[in-house]
Specification:
GO molecular function: metal ion binding; prenyltransferase activity
CATH class: Mainly Alpha
Organism: Methylocella silvestris (strain DSM 15510 / CIP 108128 / LMG 27833 / NCIMB 13906 / BL2)
GO biological process, one term: terpenoid biosynthetic process
Largest sheet: 2 strands, antiparallel
Radius of gyration: 19 Å
Distance between the termini: 17 Å
Strand order of the largest sheet: 1-2
Number of helices: 15
Shape: globular
CATH architecture: Orthogonal Bundle
Cofactor: Mg(2+)
Strand content: under 5%
Number of domains: 1
CATH superfamily: Farnesyl Diphosphate Synthase
Family: Belongs to the FPP/GGPP synthase family.
Length: 309
């Protein structure tokens, strides 16, 4: 990355993270909303533990920056970005449970079921999942009910059994398989488990920005390539990085027969695929080279490919 562009990317990533942190802090406050009866203290404490004070907030950043391409900014965009982060945080809480990945460490501290208990962690995930759709459906997020409905539908498809949840099921099935993991199967799994929510984050910005069909197609291609690059990079980090850097257990993939592209392709070919996907993501944004500025989204592709944690 060019030094100036990298600095601008870092600045915008932090700005987005700070804005989403503030919004989550507000949305996850103790006061019940209209139609709610009460917000139990222990549940709220655990939800805040799992959602606040950690993570790069890449998915919210992608939504915010994509909407910004079309001149749309403000509280409604930040609310939508916070909803995406709620889905991501819920998925991490549930992934860490003993019945799934059985992890003790997340973002450098105890996972939610370790800090609280398994039942609370399950309910934390359930609560975040439900509340994300509450936030998107609220007129405070967007005045146009058609936009809100489109956001809700697209997120349900990305996070549901044909997207993130389905990918998690394929991941669990792959762990039990005695056959070698094929690249084709791993790519499909990863496009669902990880890629679908990253793709939605970009698509949501386009929906909010009222992008035309051509712009949406370009951003969709970007989102798919970026999501795929992100997961390959994650597979590589599990092999190359240490626990302190990752903030979670390292080296677990091989030990659990995880379906990864490092296992399917080998480390060197996985690196080549990661870099090729990042280049594809950047090229998909050439549509915006005249007029609208997509430089920060292009830098996001460099960041995903080269990240250290």
């Amino acid at each position: 990355m060019a030094e100036g562009a990298a600095r601008e990317f870092d600045k915008r990533l932090k700005t987005a993270a700070d804005a989403v942190e503030t919004m989550l802090d507000r949305l996850l406050g103790p006061s019940p909303l209209a139609g709610e009866i009460a917000r139990p203290g222990r549940l709220l404490e655990a939800i805040r533990y799992s959602s606040l004070g950690g993570g790069k907030r890449l998915r919210p950043f992608l939504l915010i920056e994509t909407a910004r391409l079309f001149g749309v900014e403000g509280e409604g965009v930040t609310r939508a970005a916070a909803a995406v982060e709620m889905i991501h945080c819920y998925s991490l809480v549930h992934d860490d449970l003993p019945a799934l990945d059985n992890d003790d460490l997340r973002r450098g501290r105890a996972t939610t079921h370790k800090a609280y208990d398994e039942a609370t962690a399950i309910l934390v995930g359930d609560g975040l999942l439900t509340y994300a759709f509450d936030v998107l459906a609220d007129p405070a997020t967007h005045a146009d009910p058609a936009i809100r409905a489109e956001l809700v539908l697209a997120l349900a498809r990305a996070a549901g059994f044909g997207g993130m949840i389905g990918g998690q099921v394929l991941d669990l099935e792959a762990e039990q398989s005695t056959a070698p993991h094929t690249a084709e199967a791993v790519i499909r799994l990863q496009s669902m488990k990880t890629g679908a929510l990253l793709h939605f984050s970009v698509l949501a910005g386009a929906i909010i920005g009222a992008a035309d069909a051509k712009a949406r197609a370009a951003l969709s291609a970007y989102g798919h390539a970026l999501g795929a690059a992100f997961q390959v990079a994650d597979d590589i980090l599990d092999v190359e990085a240490d626990e302190a850097t990752l903030g979670k257990r390292a080296g677990k993939d091989a030990g659990r027969n995880k379906a990864t592209l490092v296992a399917a392709l080998g480390l060197e070919d996985a690196r080549k695929r990661r870099d090729r996907l990042a280049a594809e993501a950047i090229a998909a944004l050439d549509l915006f080279s005249q007029g609208l500025d997509a430089a920060t989204l292009k830098e996001a592709a460099h960041f995903v490919a080269k990240r250290a944690s």
